[in-house]
Write a structure and sequence with these properties.
3 domains; 28% helix; three-stranded antiparallel sheet; eight-stranded antiparallel β-barrel; 16 strands
Length: 356
């Protein structure tokens, strides 16, 4: 096997060397061709000037123009031909410089199906795999006004429960120990044609809301009721978690930077103030409880996955405020955690959100 790998490496290196050598030969031949074209340009323009001067002399001999007029016409023709040579030579010199710097493949980008970029910048919307541009036979058209963009969203922070006539200080769940996490993909669309002050932001997210009960308690499901009861032995850990898939939708407001060129127009909210107001709708996909304790000298970990009478439909309101990619994020589940509960408990989260 090792021998096969060595042989494969040697053959690959040899093929690469041959390819590079072939490329150098092709580049050199193309440069020589362009150099000959430079000489051809000079000769062509000189011959054209010679004919023009002969025509002017003939007009002078036929007394159609004066000597002074003939001299002026010759100077004008000479200047035009000199500028032609200068401009055409500049084009050839630029082509030679491109070949010497990037190779023949760079010049043939428009006609190639696979392009290897040797230090050249990639074009927008091109498919690139390990430095090789694929499917670049047609020139990629840059969209002038891209009203919709997309990206990754990650959020995390503290999680707890709101109950009527009860403050968070009297919560049945630990403040620091209860946390939430969210990750998703979003799309952002500019609402108005000529202004980016208001954007519609929407997507799909996975959310995980965790609660850690206080006073050595855990959840017990009894019929259509779920309640907290004291565990018979000392708990090292008691954690309740709900996992959801939701579709968040927000209206985002705030200033942006506009950049305009002949090819495109773009808006950027980097390092700019923004505020988002909206909500979310989704479904509960998993509910579980984790218990860690010691009994009769044995360390026991219980992972219990049940319904626990939790709501199947998840919906709520959310908002964020901040600068650039990082904002302060808050959300509140209008839907109760448990169905048919005597007292409704609604999940609330506060943390940081990153729109990448």
């Amino acid at each position: 096997m090792k021998t096969l790998i060595k042989v494969t490496i040697l053959v690959t290196m040899k093929l690469i060397g041959q390819w590079v050598q072939a490329q150098d030969i092709e580049n050199s031949a193309e440069i020589q061709k362009l150099a000959l074209e430079r000489e051809k340009i000079i000769n062509t323009e000189k011959q054209a000037l010679k004919k023009e001067v002969e025509a002017i002399n003939q007009q002078l001999d036929d007394n159609e123009i004066t000597l002074q007029e003939a001299q002026s016409l010759k100077e004008k023709a000479a200047k035009i031909r000199a500028l032609n040579i200068e401009n055409r030579m500049a084009i050839i010199d630029n082509k030679i410089a491109l070949l010497e710097r990037n190779g023949l493949d760079y010049q043939n980008t428009k006609d190639s199906k696979i392009w290897i970029g040797l230090g050249a910048k990639d074009q927008e919307n091109a498919d690139v795999l390990f430095g090789v541009k694929v499917n670049s036979g047609k020139k990629q058209k840059i969209k002038y006004d891209r009203r919709t963009t997309s990206g990754l969203m990650v959020a995390f922070g503290l999680n707890n429960v709101l109950v009527d006539d009860q403050s968070l200080e009297d919560s049945d769940y630990k403040i620091a120990g209860s946390r939430f996490f969210e990750i998703g993909w979003y799309w952002k669309t500019r609402v108005f044609k000529n202004s980016n002050f208001m954007r519609l932001k929407y997507g799909v997210s996975y959310t995980s809301n965790g609660l850690k009960p206080t006073d050595n308690r855990f959840f017990v499901e009894n019929g259509n009721q779920t309640r907290l009861v004291e565990f018979p032995v000392e708990l090292d850990k008691s954690k309740f978690r709900m996992d959801n898939i939701v579709v968040p939708v927000h209206f985002e407001f705030g200033p942006s930077i506009r950049s305009t060129t002949k090819e495109r127009i773009r808006y950027s909210t980097d390092r700019k103030f923004k505020i988002g107001l909206g909500g979310y709708l989704g479904a509960n996909i998993s509910t579980r409880q984790k218990l860690k304790y010691t009994e009769n000298g044995d360390d026991i970990k219980d992972k219990i996955k049940r319904d626990y009478n939790t709501s199947d439909l998840i919906y709520g309101i959310s908002s964020y405020i901040g600068f650039g990619t990082m904002t302060l994020y808050a959300k509140y589940d209008v839907s109760p955690i448990f169905k048919n509960a005597v007292i409704d408990q609604n999940n609330i989260s506060l943390g940081l959100r990153f729109d990448l």
